[in-house]
Amino acid sequence: MRLADLEAPALRRLLARGELLLATPPFVVRVTSDLPQVAEALHFLYRDFGVLPPDRFSDFRVEVRRVSGVRGWLKPQARFSVDGREAFLPLPQDHAPVMLEWGLNWCVVAHAHQYLILHAAVVERDGRALILPAPPGSGKSTLCAALAHRGWRLLSDELALCDLRTGTVSGMARPVNLKNQSVELISRFAPEARFSRSIAGTAKGTLSLMCPPAEAVSRVCEAARPGWIVLPRYGAGEATTLSPIARTECFMEVTEQAYNYNVHGAAGFSGLARLVGEAECFRLVHGDLDAAVALLDALAPQTVKTER
Amino acid sequence: MTHLGAETALWRARPGTLSASWPCADDGIVFDSASGDTHRLDPLSFELYLMVAERPCTFDELVAGLFDLDEAWHAHDGRHRVAHALRVLQSLHLVQGPQQ
Q1: Beta-ladder partners of A230
Q2: B38 vs A276: CB contact, 8 Å cut-off?
Q3: Which of A260, A194, A152 lies closest to A43 in space, CA to CA?
Q4: pLDDT score for A204
Q5: Residues of A in contact with B18 (CB under 8 A)
Q6: In this prediction, does ipTM exceed 0.90?
């Protein structure tokens, strides 16, 4: 069953009872919440994701609940917890949808050490992954959102899951987190893109979450071979350039964006060497979204499928 | 004779180090599992590392493997460069020298 198949009251009931098992492959998340903002956001953003029977196993058990007591009444707040333990400081209730997104990312980064996890956006075309590892503010989510509307399949705007055994890359095709002016930029670039209501005053500014394209969600279990590693840097007003770089240079920069490289030791080193060795490596400086997408698009020209 | 040790003593890669390199590049990456550190090495240092990782070598063997010893100046320069690179590799705990 897809989440969209649930009526809003049924979804709220499942959330209140802790019986919503959301399939975000490769993980299953049990979500509990008494907040209407969370129900509304899930219904809108995760409509194409699967929902599993409540008695099934879940990898993470998360709760986003209202803070009770006088303080919660005066200044409504929400708290996020994992397995009953509070993970972050409470945030305003309006921030609950992004708190859930950040919390889910935290769950993966803190626990999913079967993968080498890169802080990177990833999209795919013809079975090859375009990986964009970068620190915050480099424009990777914006590039990822734009590419996802130009024939690339969205894998993730934030976490690249590298399977050290197979050498493949996957993502969860979850909503794309867009900050400040990026929402307007993507709205102009891809008018068909759909966004959650904007949430002002977060630690990252005003945020909106972009719905993942339905096709990306339906193909979320398809991993990709590494194709390109592009290190992006946003430079307002700068010329947009894509330049090849040495694999050794790329390797060192990717280790800085790997959450758990140190956890994997020698296996992480060998796995990353394989990943970098299989990919072509570039540095992208971008000041113009259309120009950047055109350069990245040219890495893998779209094949036109003809019916016979 | 160099101050790094007798020319007949052997240099070797530290146990637990791993390397990666790719075609069309002379430099490379070395991982030290003891510390978890990863180092990008310049072509000369990387070549030296690969030589001692393949088998323990004397200082003279390393110089001879990398420089043309028939030319006096080349040999002299080579000895200095190899000595310097070995010192760096030693400080990174990627190779161990005669005294270790």
Answers
A1: A282
A2: no
A3: A194
A4: 84
A5: 266, 269-270
A6: no
